[in-house]
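I hope you will forgive my troubling you with a question about protein structure. I am sending you one protein, given as its amino acid sequence and as whole-number tokens for its backbone shapes. Thank you for your consideration; the sequence and its tokens are set out here:
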Amino acid sequence: MPSIAAHRWLMTAPGAPLVRGEFEAEPAAGEVVVAVAGCGVCHTDLGYYYDGVRTNQPLPLALGHEISGRVVGAGSGADGWMGRAVIVPAVLPCGECDLCRRGLATICRAQKMPGNDIQGGFASHIVVPARGLCAVDEPRLAAAGLTLAQVSIVADALTTPYQAVRRAGVAAGDLAVVVGIGGVGGYCAQVARAAGAEVVAIDVDARKLDAIARDGGAGLVLNARDYDAKSLKKAAAEFAKGRGLRGTEWKIFECSGTAAGQGTAFNLLVHGATLAVVGFTMDKVEVRLSNLMAFDARAIGNWGCPPELYPAALDLVLDGKVRIAPFVQTHPLADINHVFHAVHARETTRRPVLVP
């Protein structure tokens, strides 16, 4: 098929203004060209841009891995995707290696992450493998009152905590404590609630806590600025007791991607607890690791989400069990430099979605 004239916004060096570049989008065998409807701005993008976290592909590179759009070009073997609305998984495993065959796709060593391993979604178009794409049912999308651009955040902000909640085994009768109620943490709280848990949300931003209490189903919100470690744990325990929940086996989700948040989450361990590390930071944390032994607890990392879980995560949104609209805000892609600055300066509480 002929190539498609396209453009993307490139990171040329950490902190340098992102610049627009033209390119020709042309799929190889097994690949598709997706006309981007929206691409969410993630904390990980800011890590690359502001904190010097290295990308696997050398610069210049278009960031962005929360992508939705429509397939407008297809290489051989991918023709069945033409014209379809899709969400592009934030991590695309190869599907063929030993790890993938054994159900360990999240640690596939040949995986491709847009905006890290390949050119990302802050662009008019993106070329990606067709394997693993998540189809979007447009009549259901319209019935839910959502746009294709808005559900771009499913690609990471929703599916990453969705996998974390599944792996932690959250069920009815559980207490789920979410530390950090930003983009990922806010959806983690909603997914845990949808799984039957009662939710305690912890953050240092009163605006985010108000929003998650109002629109995200948290039963208790705690501003960490008002508590020390001991009193935070006591407040969560009193909430659990008041709701008739167990005082053991809490499911704790660290979503802040900060050293302070990670320390807070570790200090919340109770007997039989599961600590799920979902957020990322380059900072180091000093903890007494023996607490895991003493509490017979476990700590697990969470990287991305296997593409086969995306449809079920999307169903939560389309069925109204997880709310997106109150927590996202669209902006023109051309405003990318302003939006990056606003998010980094904590001037916005909604997850920005950039629309070409």
